[in-house]
Request: fold
Amino acid sequence: MVDHRTADKARNNCSEEQTPDEVSEDVSGIIPQDVNRCIIDSGSIISVGEKYTVQCLTIIGQIEGHYILSPQNKTTKYEHIIPQLAAAEQSEQIDGLLIILNTVGGDVEAGLAIAELVAGMTKPVVSLVLGGGHSIGVPIAVAAKRSFIAKSATMTIHPVRMNGLMLGVPQAFEYFQRMQRRITSFVTENSSVDAEKYNELAMNTNELVMDIGTILDGREAVKCGLIDKVGTLNDALCALHKMIDKEKSRKQKKG
Reply:
């Protein structure tokens, strides 16, 4: 029989913004519905196994930046993701991070901010693209130390776009070019695709009816060097576990 006081305490702990250390300590005492509450509130959960403690972080829907999107949109809020990444990097309890993406893209600045944090982590990080890793989701996917994509998943590569009113002046086009160079530079530095190939994919006019760009399925994304390997959840976890074992061995030798 569930102690309602314990359940209330777990629910309150979950609703507050806990650090991964605190969640990992409490996770064994949280009943299943409270774990679900944590997933709903933060899009993240910490899995405590016999050998590994892994934080699973989801990037879903549209990546929300400085402006709040309508309630009808599925969104990933960067103000939720950034503190979790910083906390996971500092946590001694968390061994590695699994990032699962199914995103249509979104705010460029927010997406690049998340990608830069992921790329700068020393913890083992593996990404898995399911469904789609489109637009600014591409830098986030390649920022991990090891990236996977499902066979049925796709990634859309296109140049930077802007919604709403803009001035048709040379400065505006220069801004777009500079923004595109930032994205291209990050992607090429964190994957095996070169800048010429990436720009060719982004500026393709023969594939999308209402836009320019390219849609890559799982095998094509691997073939062009954007993603490391086609794989499933099990493949991504196995790769993450191997990276964790290697990191633990390195620390033991150093100690």
About this structure: The first helix runs from residue 4 to 15.
